[in-house]
Write a structure and sequence with these properties.
The model has no long low-confidence stretch (mean pLDDT about 90). Helix content is about 30%, strand content about 35%. It has about 240 residues and is an alpha+beta fold. The chain has 6 helices and 11 strands. The termini are close together.
């Protein structure tokens, strides 16, 4: 079976059988190299057999910074990924590196499938996003209970916001917890970058309620960042 690209370039977030999600970043330098790298990935994957039946989906997002690519790989288990890396990797990366030399790859973070999913606008639920805001939170040590508590605090804040199910331009959000207990990742889907920017501006000019202050000041947060991406390529095994 060869790889088949999804028409809307997004993963099936709640794909059955996924127990492990590997999220990593490539730095490629320029928008032109971003486009070239995505095309090199497409060619390298579509011209070969699907590498491992335990890999259930592979998605690439393009950073709006003109430099980064976010890799989102869905595996049956973390052990399956480890086995593949150590024993079964093929020459795909070599072909991609030949097309776009000098790619800097960051070791992937290991996550479970989404712990919780939010619908941020009932009218646009399920729509294809024009922007994905990746919100990454790092804690000062491993604590699975604290990970869950932080995500739960976001949902408490959303529930207390009047009209939280009708945020203009928002679609939904998927909250992942890292396997080592130290990180949380929210992939928030928006109709466009403009809609996301407008929402951030509205937050900046509105009073911060107690619930959102509790999210921002949650115990043990060591750092956080938001990076913005657009869907580029999503692949799974053909039938």
């Amino acid at each position: 079976m060869n790889a088949v690209a999804h028409p809307d370039a997004r993963p099936e977030i709640h794909r059955p059988g996924v127990e492990a999600v590997l999220v990593s970043t490539w730095s490629v330098g320029t928008p032109e190299r971003q486009r070239a790298a995505v095309e090199a990935v497409r060619k390298a994957w579509e011209s070969r057999e699907w590498p491992d039946p335990r890999l259930l989906g592979y998605t690439v997002y393009c950073g709006t910074d003109g430099d980064t690519l976010l890799q989102y790989a869905q595996w049956a288990t973390h052990e399956a990924y480890d086995d593949f890396v150590h024993t079964r990797r093929d020459d795909r990366d070599a072909e991609i590196d030949a097309a776009v030399p000098g790619i800097e790859r960051v070791e992937p973070h290991r996550y479970a499938p989404p712990y919780r999913t939010a619908v941020l606008n009932e009218e646009s639920a399920g729509a294809v996003p024009g922007l994905v805001a990746a919100v990454e939170v790092e804690f000062d040590g491993p604590d699975a209970g604290r990970q869950r508590a932080w995500v739960d605090s976001v949902f408490t804040a959303l529930a207390q916001d009047e009209g939280s199910q009708r945020i203009p331009g928002a679609i939904g959000a998927q909250f992942h917890l890292s396997a080592d207990g130290t990180r949380a990742l929210d992939l928030a889907e928006w109709e466009s970058e403009q809609a996301h920017t407008a929402w951030l501006m509205s937050l900046a000019t509105s009073p911060v309620g107690e619930a959102w202050a509790a999210v921002a000041n949650h115990p043990g947060i060591a750092g956080s960042r938001v990076r913005k991406f657009t869907p580029a390529l999503s692949l799974n095994a053909g039938v």
